[in-house]
């Protein structure tokens, strides 16, 4: 008999996190699940630990493949999925024990909906950035605009009907990041989504290599996912209009550039600002900040330091 829910977990050098992440799956109050854990060419003890966990619980199904990236690992898991619903959990993140039960109930009560999503909490960031967050009810506002602007929820804060994921052909393996945003953008704009207004997913930040670790790559892949969606849905672009589309795409990219700039992460800010300028976006004031990105980075940094000193006097 097939399980109700398939959980897909890509694993790369994740042995030190597996007890916590898999442990949060084993602790679920919803018991009818399978966990497909895909070892994506790890060089540590990940595969051995997955096999040990599988011996302890037959619902854990390890798969091994040469390193191909998170999107390919998730697609490999999808190819073996048997559940009617799909959830994704990265190997260093966790769920509340009632995650599966709560999201499954919300979808079963709304048969016309394709995705259920919930709130989440960052853990380990510090500086006031670890507060729990419950996203809005996207169905009550400009859902398409909201989805196009930014990823609406982390990959592990949603449960989706399996047939929709398979029809969408899973993840775009050409994206080295933002592949979850690409999938949610395609699915959530085409199907109703339902909110579970509880914090049930936890994103653990640590010093290791995480999928979301490269800010420049994320910013540019986010734009790629947006442009890919708009190219495939010209009616959406026409409905939104050119000005709104540019604000949602290049305007969002500009804000990511500013975020890096104010943190003095010039490597990221300069790459992002150059991409924004290449598309002719931004006000005159924005361009005053962006134009020095064409200078050598050392000159750019000295210019900022001089401006900072002037602001302090």
Characterise this structure.
- With 313 residues, the chain is α/β, with parallel strands linked by helices.
- The chain has 2 domains: 5-204, Spore Coat Polysaccharide Biosynthesis Protein SpsA, Chain A, CATH 3.90.550; 215-312, no CATH class.
- It has helices at 15-26, 46-56, 70-80, 99-108, 143-149, 162-167, 179-188, 215-232, 234-240, 242-262, 266-278, 284-290, 297-312; strands spanning 5-11, 33-40, 60-65, 85-88, 94-95, 113-123, 158-161, 192-204.
- Strands 3-2-1-4-7-6-8-5 form an 8-stranded mixed sheet, sandwiched between helices.
- It starts with a strand and ends with a helix.
Provide the low-confidence segments as ranges.
208-213
Return the CATH topology of the largest domain.
Spore Coat Polysaccharide Biosynthesis Protein SpsA, Chain A
Strands side by side in the biggest sheet: 3-2-1-4-7-6-8-5
Q: What would you call the shape?
A: globular
Please give the CATH architecture of the largest domain: Alpha-Beta Complex
């Amino acid at each position: 008999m097939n399980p109700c829910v398939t959980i897909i977990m890509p694993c790369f050098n994740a042995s030190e996190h597996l007890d916590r992440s898999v442990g949060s799956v084993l602790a679920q109050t919803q018991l009818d699940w399978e966990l497909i854990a895909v070892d994506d060419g790890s060089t540590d003890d990940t595969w051995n630990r997955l096999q040990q966990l599988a011996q302890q619980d037959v619902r854990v199904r390890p798969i091994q493949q040469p390193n191909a990236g998170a999107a390919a690992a998730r697609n490999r898991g999808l190819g073996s999925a048997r559940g009617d619903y799909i959830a994704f959990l990265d190997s260093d993140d966790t769920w509340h024990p009632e995650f599966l039960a709560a999201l499954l109930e919300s979808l079963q009560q709304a048969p016309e909906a394709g995705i259920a999503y919930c709130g989440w909490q960052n853990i380990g960031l510090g500086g006031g950035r670890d507060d729990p967050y419950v996203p809005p009810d996207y169905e009550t506002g400009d859902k398409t605009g909201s989805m196009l602007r930014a990823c609406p929820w982390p990959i592990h804060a949603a449960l989706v009907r399996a047939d929709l994921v398979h029809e969408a052909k899973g993840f775009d393996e050409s994206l080295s990041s933002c592949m979850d945003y690409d999938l949610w953008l395609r699915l959530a704009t085409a199907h109703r989504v339902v909110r579970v207004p509880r914090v049930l997913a936890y994103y653990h930040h640590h010093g290791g290599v995480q999928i979301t670790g490269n800010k420049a790559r994320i910013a540019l892949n986010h734009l790629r996912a947006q442009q890919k969606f708009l190219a495939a849905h010209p009616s959406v672009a026409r409905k939104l209009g050119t000005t709104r589309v540019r604000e949602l795409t290049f305007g969002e990219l500009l804000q990511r550039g500013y975020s890096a700039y104010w943190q003095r992460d010039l490597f990221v800010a300069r790459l992002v600002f150059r991409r924004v300028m290449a598309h002719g976006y931004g006000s005159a004031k924005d361009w005053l900040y962006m134009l020095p990105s064409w200078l050598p980075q050392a000159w750019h940094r000295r210019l900022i330091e001089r401006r900072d000193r002037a602001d302090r006097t």
